[in-house]
Amino acid sequence: MTWKNKIKSNQNITSLPLILECIRLTSSFCAAVTIGVKKVLSAVLESAAKACLHEQVRNKNGAVTMLSGS
After folding, report:
1. 0.85 cut: is pTM over it?
2. 38 belongs to a structural domain
3. How many domains does the chain have?
């Protein structure tokens, strides 16, 4: 085996862990982004549901007040 072939084969061996590390980092980044998006969406939906519920309660109380006042 010549020294050029040896360098080529070593590069292939060392690039494999590098590729695997890159895939691992990419997948963990994607997982973190997914979790962040889920948290933001759930927070937005929760606050919207609370606001909607609060609005319904207020309307209901307003209607009751108007009925009892008349």
Report:
1. no
2. yes
3. 1
